[in-house]
Amino acid sequence: MKRRSLAFSRADLRTWRADMSRMQPAQRPSGPLMQMLNVASMAVGATPTGLILRLTSARGEVADVFVNPAVAEAMLAALRAAGQSEGWLGKDDRVIEPSPDP
User: Rg of the chain's alpha carbons, rounded to an integer?
Assistant: First the structure.
């Protein structure tokens, strides 16, 4: 199978991965969760160099975020690991349904 041409180079990917290590934020912000952007919905668009996430908050605020392929790969792994370790994501990558209310 012929390898598809990409809109970014190996050097771009190396730079993005290096930036992820060099520019890493704190693991979790301090303060109440209610002060954070509470995402109620999202739309995802693909570009030749990554993803565009359009997030809508519970208050109707919209934020657009560009995610390069290196960050997208790390997000996928982090979401899977966090969800499974906290018990809300199954091995099939689906949200685990809560038990019915009594």
Answer: 17
pTM score, whole prediction:
0.76
C-alpha 51, offset from chain centre: 10
The values of phi and psi at residue 23, to 5°, are: -110, 30
d(CA 102, CA 99): 9
The 10s digit of each residue's pLDDT in 10-65 is 999 999 999 988 988 877 767 666 667 789 999 999 999 999 999 999 889 999 99
- For residues 70 and 20, is the Cβ–Cβ distance under 8 A? yes
The CA-based diameter of the chain, rounded to the nearest angstrom, is: 56
Q: Tell me if 38 sits within 8 A of 53, measured CB to CB.
A: no
